[in-house]
């Protein structure tokens, strides 16, 4: 490996530092593969996990997700390991949308990172009625209990809109609706990753709990972490 390649590898596989290790690991690996930084074979699991600063279980979950998405394949036995697929998935619609958005994709993700955590903090700061809390819990249950991925996507959008709606602040509700309109269509273009779904469910529940406890700082922090997880996957698969 040349010096330039080593620098590129260190940059793309830099340690994961935020609260979304699975999603960011998927992003790091998918981006490296798409950019051709991994020509054929990924480093051994132990080495790669240490480089990324994640557990081997997290790395294996990320590799399994990438295998399901058609990015990598595993071979056993002598000379085995994890290899980049010769033909990477290229969903024409997804990449057409991403290319057509250009910098607007980055701007949409930045916009969401500002708007939705603020909405969650505002909801936690408000004196909500029992009906409002029941509504949030019901919307949360609709997401976690959705019978299929399509219904879950829609329930997920409704949940985020519910957080805004309980604030009663029309400009905030409008802003969150705008964010969801921009993001939800993109989410339908990337693979559904089960580890991310479980992580998302935990974060959703944490936001609802923080709102119920009247803790705006925690509600904002969890929602920001949640938005960062989604952004990581969108960047990894679409950019």
Automatic annotation (TrEMBL):
Keywords: DNA-binding, Transcription, Transcription regulation. Residues 19-87 form the HTH gntR-type domain. It holds the Pfam family FCD. InterPro entries: GntR_C, TF_FadR/GntR_C, Tscrpt_reg_HTH_GntR, WH-like_DNA-bd_sf, WH_DNA-bd_sf. SMART domains: FCD, HTH_GNTR. Transmembrane segments: none annotated. PANTHER family: GLUCONATE OPERON TRANSCRIPTIONAL REPRESSOR, TRANSCRIPTIONAL REGULATOR, GNTR FAMILY. This is FCD domain-containing protein.
